[in-house]
């Protein structure tokens, strides 16, 4: 069933009208403004932002001048009906009907400020706000309008990509993976998303970084350029070519996330079991034991803060074990745990200790340290060669034993 809202207005004018599409501009009453859905807005409102505080202050200081100072609210509806000169009826279908584009296109902070102003009992009788109402628009048109009208504060690229549907293929895959593996992923696709943590580890950008780190075709240490997927490798915009490339890597997401989780478990064990008594309990650079880290797998949280890029060079080293079709050349479970422990002990641990002694904060610098990425990749490659030699030796040993048994039988 559609949802019907009544909007009280001081006056209104219909700029364009047809059987299917209408555009109405109205000066609406702030008091009693309907609680319209925020689904199509490119980002969720943030009550801590300066934009929100300015709106709330305006409602308190000079509510009668609010309509003159404020840019207004943009709304998308299925249909709009003129009840009278002072009242409009808005019909909206929700996401359950496949209509994600009905509701507030621009003005989420304003609507939130209206609610809080009413709770604080501000005098809103004389307050009005300009409202632009579109009816019958397509979802694509609503996305374009939402992006074009959200100009009061910068909209980050992540929110823009989400509004354009560029992350939909990743969302679909993660939803299917949640059902298959009985897990819940907390991934933020846009600014101020209320159902996901603000942690960088849970950003869709971080998910893409984890996948890109395993692109063994694009990033080849034998090449002159693009040897390793450092921080500059993350595509600023997800184009069709990027979507095709990332789609081929999606089946590796569980393993990439496992590597990150395992690394954080190793760091946790290192922090609670110091190697020597009487030494600094936290000799690792940029590891803050006063903070917490949330990973995008909702089951995993750790009692220390760490840069989101910390795991990336470790994840990237694992691409040694991938073929050109992005399949593991050996069963992942047979080498993954030993390899990550080996990489930690031989390189990453020493790197974090040296940076701590030097008083450096690694942050995003770890993604620009080509020497570290090169060392970890080389270490993983040497580990792979050793593993192959052991497998061949074991195979030859088994053959010798079987041959010996046959001779004894004769």
UniProtKB/TrEMBL annotation:
<dbReference type="InterPro" id="IPR018891">
    <property type="entry name" value="AIPR_C"/>
</dbReference>
<protein>
    <submittedName>
        <fullName>Abortive phage infection protein</fullName>
    </submittedName>
</protein>
<dbReference type="Pfam" id="PF10592">
    <property type="entry name" value="AIPR"/>
</dbReference>
<feature type="domain" description="Abortive phage infection protein C-terminal">
    <location>
        <begin position="38"/>
        <end position="336"/>
    </location>
</feature>
């Amino acid at each position: 069933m559609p949802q019907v809202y009544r909007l009280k207005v001081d006056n209104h004018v219909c700029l364009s009208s047809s059987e299917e599409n209408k555009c109405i501009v109205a000066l609406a009453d702030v008091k009693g403004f309907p609680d319209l859905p925020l689904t199509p807005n490119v980002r969720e409102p943030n009550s801590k932002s300066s934009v929100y505080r300015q709106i709330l202050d305006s409602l308190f200081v000079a509510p009668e001048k609010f309509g003159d100072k404020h840019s207004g609210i943009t709304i998308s509806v299925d249909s709009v009906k003129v009840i009278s000169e002072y009242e409009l009826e808005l019909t909206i279908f929700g996401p359950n009907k496949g209509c994600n584009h009905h509701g507030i296109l621009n003005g989420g902070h304003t609507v939130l400020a209206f609610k809080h102003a009413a709770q604080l009992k501000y005098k809103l009788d004389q307050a009005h706000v300009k409202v632009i109402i579109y009816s019958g628009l397509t979802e694509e048109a609503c996305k374009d309008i939402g992006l074009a009208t959200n100009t009061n504060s910068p909209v980050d690229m992540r929110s823009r990509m989400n509004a354009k549907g560029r992350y939909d293929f990743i969302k679909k895959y993660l939803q299917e993976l949640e059902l298959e593996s009985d897990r819940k992923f907390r991934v933020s696709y846009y600014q101020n998303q209320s159902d996901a943590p603000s942690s960088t580890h849970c950003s869709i950008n971080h998910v893409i970084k984890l996948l890109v780190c395993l692109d063994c075709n694009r990033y080849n240490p034998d090449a002159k350029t693009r040897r390793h997927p450092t921080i500059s490798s993350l595509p600023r915009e997800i184009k069709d070519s990027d979507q095709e490339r990332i789609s081929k890597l999606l089946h590796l997401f569980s393993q990439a996330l496992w590597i990150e989780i395992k690394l954080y478990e190793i760091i946790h064990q290192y922090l609670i079991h110091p190697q020597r008594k009487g030494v600094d309990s936290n000799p690792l650079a940029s590891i803050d034991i006063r903070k917490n880290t949330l990973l995008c797998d909702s089951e995993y949280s750790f009692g220390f803060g760490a840069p989101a890029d910390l795991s990336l060079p470790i994840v990237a080293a694992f691409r040694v074990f991938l073929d050109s079709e992005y399949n593991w050349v050996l069963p992942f479970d047979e080498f993954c745990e030993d390899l990550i422990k080996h990489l930690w002990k031989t390189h990453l641990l020493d790197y974090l200790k040296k940076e701590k002694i030097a008083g450096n904060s690694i942050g995003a610098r770890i993604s620009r340290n080509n020497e570290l990425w090169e060392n970890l990749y080389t270490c993983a490659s040497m580990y792979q060669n050793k593993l192959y030699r052991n497998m061949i030796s074991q195979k030859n040993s088994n053959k010798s034993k079987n041959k010996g048994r046959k001779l004894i039988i004769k």
